Amino acid sequence: MSILMTLPKMLDQCIDECLKCARACEECFRACLDEPDVQARSQCIQLLNDCAQICVLSAQYMARNSGFSKELCKLCADICDACAQECEMFKDEHCQKCAQICRQCAEMCRQMAG
How far apart are CA 109 and CA 114, in angstroms? Predict the structure, then answer.
């Protein structure tokens, strides 16, 4: 839901999905650091960080109606997909849930970029 102005519904939904994904990635990042196979998760941990950051940045660009929002949403979708793919390799609940949320965000961002 837009706070200060009326944003198109799809834009508003995409901002919400990006923020949800950023939070999921941050939580999964923290949980991965506590796993016994943390060394095997180094690529996953890096992608979680990248994904969280691009999601927040995308939400900021969309909120201010930047002319670069669509390009950033395309990149965000690509990074979310990469993060989901990496998380899916680990069978713990936090990685599986994060992968699902990343896939949802990627789909919404692709719609915005389209």
Answer: 8
Q: Which two tokens stand for residue 42?
A: 């180094």
State which CATH number among 1.20.1270.360, 3.30.1490.20, 1.20.1250.20, 3.40.50.2000 fits the domain covering 9-113.
1.20.1270.360
- List, for residues 30-50, the tens digit of each pLDDT value: 999 999 999 999 999 999 999
Comparing C-alpha atoms, which of 68, 81, 79 is closest to residue 112? 68
For the record, the structure tokens of 84 come out as: 């989901």
